[in-house]
Hints:
Layout: H1 13-18, E1 25-31, H2 37-52, E2 56-62, H3 69-74, E3 79-84, H4 90-100, E4 105-110, E5 113-115, H5 117-123, E6 134-144, E7 150-155, E8 165-167, E9 174-177, H6 178-183, H7 195-205, E10 210-223, H8 228-236, H9 242-250, H10 255-264, H11 266-281, H12 285-301, H13 310-330, E11 341-344
Helix pairs in contact: 2-5, 8-13, 9-13, 11-12, 11-13, 12-13
Amino acid sequence: MLNNTGKDHIKDRKTTKSMAIAPSVSFIIIGRNEGWRLPLCLKSTVKAIDACQIQAEIIYVDSQSTDDSLNVAKSFEMVKCFLITGTYNAAIARNIGVKEAQGQNLIFLDGDMEINPDFLNLILDSDGNLKYDFVSGNFMNYYYDNEGNFLRKDFYRKIYCDKDTIQYTTGGLFAIKRSHWESVGGMRNKYKKGQDLDLGYRLAKKGIPLLRKKERMANHHTIDYKDKKRLWRSIFDGSQVYPRVVLYRDNIFNKYVLKRMLTSDPTLILFITSVQLSLILKCALPMLGYVLLTALGVAYAMRKTVFKGYMNRLLNHILKDLVNLFALLFYYPTNNVDVEYERVIRKD
């Protein structure tokens, strides 16, 4: 496993000098307890700026890390650091980053990502302005277990493309012109998860879809998405309802979201329908049909894993559908969130 304390300062006279001129590009990095991954992220960003010779700034917004992430960020001379002191999530952090940014071209990445310097030359012109309205690229996932042991790597298949492709959602890695970000009001602060999906769908509805370029934009160091603890944590903390029923309800008249609901969440639709039929018919057969079809669907999804942990995945899936039904009926989070943060000044 990679290990880096991030205590070394990266100093470059050309980079420091460029800060005297208003930046054309603002890199907005968010993080919480990123550990050894944050110095990799910040080093790669500084390297990319120097390689492209652009006028740029780096903004890091920390969501109350309990490790040394904030000190690591402060050790980089070029980085402007901000600490969220109130309610935090990724949407709030990114909105703060944009508010404090000076550039008209915004590049977002998470603190566990390493940006590919070569990718910037594909999306920026000679003046450091974005060639595209809303753009991202492929990224390589490096998966780890909860103890930080490396498991495997592969491209993120859900969004992977072997040629430049128009898509309607993004993750935490993308570039956008400030004018388009502001045209939809940025991210919705209420989203604890799935805020990037919501942003992408709202932009697509305005006629600004994402261009996914075939080249690799970054490496992403993350816990395995199918890790048991990660799957169950998203249920118990309630975050998994945001990219599902909260997203669907907020964008009910958005054709791109309706398509996602039909293709990505068929068991939730089946569950809601089965509950209604069971109540109308006063029998459990529709619910039994839901359980059977869901069991077959999970088995099909796990066909390449020799069904390891099958019952755990099935139970998790059914419980998610149940929680989302309750959220659909009773949970209506407000977007009026008090945003509290402060600038953290670097001391030499």
